[in-house]
Design a protein that fits this description.
The structure is a single chain. With about 450 residues, this protein is an alpha/beta fold. It folds into 2 domains: about 10-205 and about 425-440, Rossmann fold (3-Layer(aba) Sandwich); about 210-420, Rossmann fold. It is about 45% helix and about 20% strand. It has a 6-stranded parallel β-sheet, sandwiched between helices. A 5-stranded parallel β-sheet has the order 2-3-1-4-5, with helices on both faces. It has a two-stranded antiparallel ribbon with strand order 6-9. Helix 4 packs across helix 5 and helix 8 packs across helix 17.
């Protein structure tokens, strides 16, 4: 019999269980994960499945002494959050003698200059087996793959140096004289890169092997008044918006983008960090959506703090109970169906949380440029275990603003990522055939 689990955590644990207790190829495992996932998800999965009952584990999070104590326990698997990778390798009193390392959310190591990446590369030659897990390998394009795969193969496939990778597969895109701000892939780059990494890359989608709920994506459009539109265009054109309290300046394009996103959402911070309210179009739209839910639970993704504050203010006025999903208790209440409206920030809840038991509708009040956060937040509801036949993702979009550009950008980035996933996707039937042949069946 061949058992199939679709869920990267249980699949990885099942493989580790076999390596630990059947083939004896592994002795000591380190799992690196986002904080909340490290604290809760991996331990919960070990406890959940009967076939994993022999795995001994220790969760090394918390204070320095708590982490040291957890690492000194004699177990099979040690779980640590990614923020403490540098500490573990460079500052802790524990010898780094793990023969196997699992990186949950490998995409968080996509920056080859980050301290956590450099620290892990120092001990990479000691690691006999390394496994990287991610649902968003190229959230910002093919350049992300360099650091991720250097951790996996120490530069064997994509090159030992970022300059080598960049010169081989990319050409300058946006630049100012000799200063290059960004690069774009050469015409042959995608196919060549996919071929290079295909031998160590396995991709599986839940909806390829399970009956997943239908995913419905919609847009709820709102419109600015002429006065509001003029203010928006003024800021966009001149990078300066005159207000009653002073000036708001956007020193560069990135800052301008943030200002325009705020304005599209309905409010903006001035130079003193005071909130200036511009409009309530999105707040009104959210109220309409909540009313249309007829009491069914709704998950709302916000981006700026003033978004949360303004949403909370409106919900208080309407006497609608709500909760911010930022604690284990609030998440448990949501999953038990006791939260009519839940507010979530993608940066703190994008990875590893199981929210599918609480509802099946997500509203994006404010969008993010990050494809990784966008997809991971959506995946909190659209995932295995969702009992509804449909999952609805609604985007409140202010027409004629940067909202439309962000949606287009997310779609264009996803084209690159989808191509990568499809290029290396494992055919489950092939795996089954190969396994049967190896077993002589």
């Amino acid at each position: 019999m061949i058992w199939v689990w679709v869920g990267k955590t249980v699949i990885t644990l099942t493989a580790l269980n076999d390596l630990l207790f059947d083939s004896f190829d592994v002795k000591k495992v380190l799992i690196i994960a986002p904080l909340r996932v490290a604290k809760v998800t991996w331990a919960a999965e070990i406890q959940k499945w009967e076939h994993l009952k022999n795995i001994r584990y220790s969760v090394a999070v918390g204070s320095e002494q708590e982490r040291i104590n957890a690492l000194k326990v004699n177990v099979d698997i040690y779980i640590i959050n990614r923020e403490n990778v540098q500490w573990l390798i460079e500052k802790s009193v524990i010898t780094f003698d793990f023969d196997t390392v699992v990186i949950d959310e490998l995409s968080s190591f996509k920056n080859h200059q980050a301290k956590r990446f450099r620290a892990l590369m120092k001990v990479r030659p000691k690691i006999k087996r390394i496994i990287g897990l991610t649902g968003t390998p190229t959230s910002n394009g093919l350049m992300d793959l360099y650091a991720e795969f250097k951790l996996l193969d120490m530069g064997k496939r994509l090159g030992r140096f970022i300059g080598q990778y960049r010169n081989t597969y990319f050409e300058p895109d946006k630049r100012n004289g000799q200063i290059v701000f960004s690069y774009k892939p050469l015409p042959f780059a995608e196919d060549e890169i996919y071929k290079k990494i295909s031998d160590i890359t396995v991709s599986m989608k839940a909806n390829d092997h399970l009956k997943m709920p239908e995913l419905i994506s919609t847009e709820y459009e709102v419109y600015l008044s002429d006065d509001e539109k003029n203010k928006y265009e003024e800021l966009k054109k001149d990078l300066v918006l005159e207000t009653e309290t002073g000036e708001i300046t956007a020193a560069n394009a990135a800052a301008l983008s943030g200002k325009l996103c705020q304005m599209a959402n309905g409010a903006i911070y001035d130079e003193e960090k005071e909130v200036i309210k511009i409009h309530e179009r999105k707040i009104d739209a959210l109220e309409d959506i909540i009313e249309s839910m007829n009491g069914k639970p709704l998950l709302v993704a916000y981006w700026f703090k003033h978004d949360y504050d303004r949403i909370a203010e409106r919900l208080h006025k309407l006497h609608i109970p709500f909760s911010k999903l930022d604690t284990s208790e609030s998440i448990a209440r949501w999953n038990s169906g006791n939260v009519p409206v839940a507010l979530i920030h993608p940066a703190s809840a994008g990875h590893g949380l199981n929210l599918q038991n609480g509802g099946n509708t997500l509203v994006w009040f404010g969008l993010t440029w990050s494809l990784e956060l966008y997809q991971q937040t959506t995946a909190r509801l659209w995932r295995q275990g969702q009992t509804s036949e449909t999952v609805v993702i609604q985007h409140i979009i202010t027409k004629g603003t940067i909202d439309e550009r962000i949606l287009r950008s997310l779609s264009q980035k996803n084209m690159t990522q989808t191509a990568l996933i499809e290029a290396v996707k494992a055919d489950l039937m092939t795996i089954r055939v190969n396994q049967r042949q190896s077993e002589g069946k």
